[in-house]
Amino acid sequence: MPILSLGTIALDRISTPAGRVEQAVGGSAVFFCAAASLLCEVRIVGVVGNDYPLLELDFLRRRGVDFGGVAQLPGPSFFWSGEYSEDYRSRATLETRPGVLTDFDPRVPEGWRDSRMIFLGNIDPKLQLALLDRTEGPALVVADTMNYWIEEAREALMQLLARIDVLIVNDEEAVQLSGADDLAEAAARIRSLGPGVLVIKRGEAGASLYGEGWSHSCPSFAPDRLRDPTGAGDAFAGGFMGRLERDGRHDRVALCRAAAFGAAAGSFAVEDFSVERFRSLTADELAARAQAIALAAPPPVEAGGRTAAQRGGRQR
Ligand code: AMP
Q1: For residue 232, is it within any domain?
Q2: What local confidence, expressed as pLDDT, does residue 313 receive?
Q3: Ligand 1 centroid distance, CA of 80 (Å)
Q4: What is the pLDDT of residues 243-299, one digit of tens each?
Q5: What average pLDDT does the chain have?
Q6: Is residue 314 very low, low, confident or very high in pLDDT (cuts 50, 70, 90)?
Q7: What span, in angstroms and rounded, lies between the C-alpha atoms of 164 and 40?
Q8: Residue 35: CATH number of its domain
Q9: Which residues, judged by CB distance below 6 Å to any ligand atom, belong to the binding site of ligand 1?
Q10: In what order do the strands lie in the sheet with 3-6?
């Protein structure tokens, strides 16, 4: 069944050591769909202004992304401008203009309300909550957020955390959200607020998953080239959830396998500006890179530091 996704559909101005792009298609929902659509069908809920080059997203439509939940409103699209440091390790947001996002009320088309898997991409937590209110009994709700919302909308974010199954954040956001510097402690505190599973993205250091009584480190993959890190986190979520949908389950084994697909999707995202790399990327290329990542990953660790193999359990 298709994943129901919500997020920004943006126009980005991005400057990196490799160059600069203007009016580039981006946004959390777009990067998510670019990755997830290689693995499964996706439904998208979002908003664009009348300046949005929707034709540039036709490659997603051809891959089975259903734009039936995208509203087009008079006014400018959500705009974001960011600049990366010489070593790509830090990024400054130069400008964020919400545009039509200010008046956006996420509508879920009638036939989509019973979607089983929901991805609440990075956007105002009030909108994430509104979308959840308009769905019926999903099996898995995964959400993403960022420093901006942790600062500006903490109360709504707390309400959201109580209603989701998996939260995906980066290491800085995990520290900011929890108040704990140590990532394992940060994970414990955030999990106590609601999500049973926390995924912490750590850039080149990979991603760490924390569940009830277990954790898992998923390595990163050195991309063929680095041009623009924008959207890597949303692409991670797309690869992660796409794989979970394909698996039809979300237990520990499936989550760890899905993390490798997330890491693979993120590593492809950074190889070019905007969603350019996804235009030609195939599902086979994604799967091959995910397999290489999974092979390099250590087995999950249980509480107390033992792996399942050390306990005598079966490894899959
Ligand atoms: P990431 O690099 O994974 O953080 O995602 C970058 C994308 O997020 C860009 O394409 C932006 O348009 C979008 N974005 C930037 N700021 C926000 C925000 N406050 N809320 C939602 N999306 C945002």
Answers
A1: yes
A2: 38
A3: 7
A4: 999 999 999 999 999 999 999 999 999 999 999 999 999 999 999 999 999 999 988
A5: 94
A6: very low
A7: 21
A8: 3.40.1190.20
A9: 8, 10, 12, 26-28, 80, 96, 122-123, 146, 148, 230-234
A10: 65-73, 42-49, 3-6, 117-120, 140-144, 166-170, 197-201, 207-211, 214-218, 301-302
Q: pTM higher than 0.85 for the full model?
A: yes
Tell whether the model's pLDDT for residue 307 goes beyond 70: no
Candidates 77, 97, 122: which one to mutate for ligand 1, based on the most atoms within 8 Å of Cβ? 122
Q: Is 314 part of any domain?
A: no
Percentage of residues in the chain having pLDDT higher than 90:
92
Distance CA 191, CA 208 (A): 14
Helices (H), the chain: 28-36, 58-62, 125-133, 147-152, 154-161, 171-178, 183-191, 232-247, 252-269, 276-280, 283-296
| Within-domain flag for 233 | yes
